[in-house]
């Protein structure tokens, strides 16, 4: 048990683990993570299988990486605890009595005789130290008086607070990894959805996409209402960066999509030889409409938001986004089909219309009206509060460690024939120069006193 | 006055400043370094105005694409140098540091960098953009100074071993490197990791996703944690410490540049 403790009580082990974890993290950025086995085999050949077996393909979630992190955490705990005990003793039960020898080896020190009695000298010194926010401890022994003046003692514990913060963050990460819930809710306006282990439901009241003048997306806004027992509790417009939190669940605007099942398509019909001829028609998929003033009916048989022809020569949609909208239209004269073919909204000249009969008509897929649905990510992360607490400790600890250096001034006063001999020294955990100048000022004020 | 003209003016001031620092290295006239410092300071002021104008023109924080971000990194680097020089007097590092700044400015003005301000995508519309990016880049600027002083340390140290006297004593360079990291490390931790996690949580619903940029910023942080522990606990100083600081800065460089161009991920915008 003791040897195990000693094993983990090693800064060298900490450095070794830190290097290993760093190298592993680098490896994880060089091999793209969480792809399918086929992709790895295609990319790395036989190595792909090996990577998969060694869990390099999901390195940061792999058992060996998490084991490394746990070892590291244990290492931090043991190292911190071992060093904490003597620090606590030093902070709360310091040794005030000190040999003059120990002061003489300090880098900041002074030794002089002053023409006043010990009590006066002590009073002066204490006044000066107190005005500089030092806390004092005093011990009298025989003819000597020992003074221990300290300030910013918390600075000693900066690194411990940092380590505590890191441990809390690691714990938060583990809790989050084990207990995190995340689900994408695909909601059209009016939809109500419940969540497992939640005693409430959410309803999407409204979803809108805002655009910049150049056509790029400015924002997605979903108006969400929380319902408890069918009663609305609260409503909030959520957008990216502004989620809704309710009872531990957080709802994020995550994505959006088009509802292609119930849409209407706008088609403009022109005549090649007659520039003044223009008929604007609008129809649902499958519906037949009369072309005004002509003895022709047209209909849209299919609508494809992202038209592409795959390797098997089939027409299909590459995605659900309207990247290349296309419509398959038909023209009818009484019961005779006179033409059919694809028209494209982004490539009007690319229309492929097969005519059974000569026709002068040309068609443009001008617009379409489809409902949009909002994708809301519902998440519950029991680790997240640990993360914020850990981050707070981390930052407080760093501030203490770097910018709250502990200062100690140790003084021995001894009266000798009406004169007082002063032996004093200073120790700073950081920025010794600053203590040096303060120390000099304190000593000079004692020298000047009468 | 528009932003790009001011940017150019700041660029020219930095070049003039570098020129004075260069002459200082050869003539050893302190006065030249002082003029160099003044030019760098004037450049910083003009650059500041340029960034403010940019903010008003675009209506958002001046670091949302590579041009803006490089310009801001150059600005924070000069700011960091002005502060460090004021406190620790390392005039001899001036030229090398200004060369880095000039490289950043040149890269920013290269025709490959689109300069027009584009409207913000939804994910970037957050005040965390200000906090996350500015604090992180300021931290990285201090790492950059530590990088320069560490290299200068290595040179000065090997000169000393050969009995040649160098301009700045190696002990001072070693201590300035440490002090820069003592400033840069808390800033980088706060801006890069803590603010990054908070923002990621609000924007993406997860505080950490092992996205390459996140991972590399953690790797950078590990290197500087290594620097601090080997130095404070194990008593490393001098050469070994300098090597760790240099590697740490290279990791920061990969985090900043490499990830955008080599590894795809969530941070695809900048």
A few lines on this structure:
The complex is a heterodimer of chains A (450) and B (270). By secondary structure, chain A is of the alpha+beta class. Chain A contains 10 helices and 21 strands.
In what order do the strands lie side by side in the largest sheet of chain A? 1-21-20-3-2
By DSSP (H or I, 4+ residues per run), the number of helices of chain A equals: 10
Number of helices of chain B: 8
Biggest sheet statistics of chain A:
5 strands, antiparallel
Computed Rg of chain A = 39 Å
Strand-pairing-aware structural class of chain A:
alpha+beta
The residue fraction in helices of chain B comes out at: over 70%
Indicate the proportion of strand residues of chain B.
under 5%
Tally of discrete structural domains of chain B:
2
- The helix content of chain A is 25-40%
Poorly predicted sequence stretches spanning 5 or more consecutive residues of chain B: none
Oligomer: heterodimer
Largest sheet of chain B: none
Descriptive account of the structure:
The complex is a heterodimer of chains A (450) and B (270). With 450 residues, chain A is an alpha+beta fold. Chain A has 4 domains: 2-90; 94-152 and 405-448, Double Stranded RNA Binding Domain; 164-259 and 374-396, no CATH class; 260-370, no CATH class. Chain A is built from 10 helices and 21 strands. The longest helix of chain A has 30 residues, at 63-92. Chain A is elongated. The model of chain A has no long low-confidence stretch (mean pLDDT 89). Chain B is mostly helical and 270 residues long. Chain B has 2 domains: 1-120; 149-270, no CATH class. In chain B, helix 2 (30-58) runs antiparallel to helix 3 and helix 5 crosses helix 8. The radius of gyration of chain B is 19 Å and the shape is flat. The A-B interface holds A 11-12, 14-15, 18-19, 21-22, 25-26, 28-29, 32-33, 60, 173, 176, 182, 212, 214, 216-220, 239-243, 250, 252-254, 377, 379, 381, 384, 387-388, 391, 394-395, 398-399, 402 and B 118-119, 121-123, 125-126, 128, 182-183, 185-186, 189-190, 193-194, 197-198, 201-208, 210, 212, 215-216, 218-219, 222-223, 225-226, 229-230, 233-234, 259, 263-264.
């Amino acid at each position: 048990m003791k040897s195990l403790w000693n094993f983990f009580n090693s800064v060298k082990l900490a450095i070794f683990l830190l290097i290993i974890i760093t190298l592993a993290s680098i490896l994880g950025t060089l091999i793209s993570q969480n792809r399918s086995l086929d992709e790895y085999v295609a990319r790395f050949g036989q190595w792909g299988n090996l990577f998969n077996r060694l869990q390099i393909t999901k390195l940061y979630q792999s058992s060996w990486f998490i084991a490394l992190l746990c070892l590291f955490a244990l290492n931090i705990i043991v190292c911190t605890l071992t060093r904490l005990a003597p620090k606590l003793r030093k902070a709360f039960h310091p040794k005030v009595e000190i040999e003059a020898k120990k002061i003489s080896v300090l880098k900041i020190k002074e030794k002089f005789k002053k023409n006043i009695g010990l009590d006066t000298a002590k009073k002066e010194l204490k006044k000066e130290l107190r005005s500089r926010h030092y806390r004092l401890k005093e011990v009298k022994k025989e003819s000597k008086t020992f003074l221990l003046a300290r300030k910013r003692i918390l600075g000693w514990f900066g690194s411990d607070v940092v380590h505590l913060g890191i441990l809390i963050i690691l714990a938060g990460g583990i809790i989050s990894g084990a207990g995190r819930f995340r689900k994408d809710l695909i909601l059209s306006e009016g939809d109500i959805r419940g969540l497992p282990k939640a005693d409430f439901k959410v309803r999407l009241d409204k979803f809108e996409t805002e655009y910049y003048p150049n056509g790029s997306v400015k924002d997605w806004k979903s108006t969400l209402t929380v319902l408890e027992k069918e009663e609305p509790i609260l409503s909030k417009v959520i957008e990216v960066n502004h989620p809704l939190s309710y009872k531990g669940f957080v709802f994020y605007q995550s994505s959006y999509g088009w509802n292609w099942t119930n849409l209407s398509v706008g088609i403009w019909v022109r005549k090649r030889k007659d520039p003044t001829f223009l008929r604007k028609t609008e129809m649902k998929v499958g519906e037949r409409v009369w072309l005004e003033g002509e003895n022709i009916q047209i209909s849209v048989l299919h609508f494809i938001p992202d038209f592409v022809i795959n390797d098997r020569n089939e027409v299909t949609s590459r995605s659900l986004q309207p990247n290349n909208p296309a419509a398959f239209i038909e023209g009818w004269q009484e019961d005779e089909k006179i033409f059919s073919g694809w028209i494209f909204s982004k490539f009007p000249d690319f229309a492929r219309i097969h005519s059974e009969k000569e026709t002068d008509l040309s068609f443009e897929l001008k617009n379409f009206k489809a409902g949009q649905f909002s994708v809301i990510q519902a998440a519950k992360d029991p680790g997240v509060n640990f993360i914020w607490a850990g981050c707070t400790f981390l930052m407080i600890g760093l501030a203490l460690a770097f910018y709250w250096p502990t200062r100690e001034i140790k003084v021995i006063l001894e009266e000798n024939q009406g004169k007082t001999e002063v032996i004093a020294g200073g120790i700073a955990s950081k920025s010794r120069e600053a203590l040096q100048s303060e120390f000099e000022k304190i000593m000079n004020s004692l020298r000047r006193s009468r | 006055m528009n932003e790009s003209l001011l940017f150019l003016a700041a660029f020219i001031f930095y070049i003039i400043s570098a020129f004075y620092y260069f002459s200082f290295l050869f003539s050893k006239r302190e006065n030249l370094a002082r003029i160099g410092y003044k030019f760098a300071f004037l450049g910083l002021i003009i650059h500041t105005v340029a960034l403010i104008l940019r903010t008003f023109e675009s209506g958002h924080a001046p670091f949302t694409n590579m041009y803006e971000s490089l310009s801001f990194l150059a600005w924070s680097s000069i700011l960091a140098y002005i502060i460090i020089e004021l406190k620790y007097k390392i005039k001899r590092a001036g030229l090398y540091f200004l060369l880095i700044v000039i490289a950043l400015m040149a890269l920013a003005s290269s025709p490959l960098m689109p300069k027009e301000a584009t409207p913000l995508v939804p994910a970037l519309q957050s005040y965390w953009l200000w906090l996350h990016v500015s604090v992180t880049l300021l931290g990285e600027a201090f790492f950059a100074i530590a990088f320069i002083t560490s290299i200068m340390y290595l040179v000065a140290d090997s000169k000393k071993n050969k009995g040649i006297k160098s301009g700045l004593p190696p002990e001072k360079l070693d201590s300035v490197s440490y002090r820069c990291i003592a400033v840069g490390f808390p800033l980088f931790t706060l801006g890069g990791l803590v603010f990054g996690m908070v923002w990621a949580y609000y924007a993406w619903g997860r505080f950490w996703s092992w996205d390459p940029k996140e991972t590399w910023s953690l790797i950078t942080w590990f290197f500087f944690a290594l620097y601090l522990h080997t130095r404070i606990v194990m008593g490393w100083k001098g050469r070994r410490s300098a090597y760790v600081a240099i590697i740490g800065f290279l990791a920061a460089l990969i985090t900043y540049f490499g990830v955008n161009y080599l590894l795809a991920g969530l941070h695809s915008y900048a």
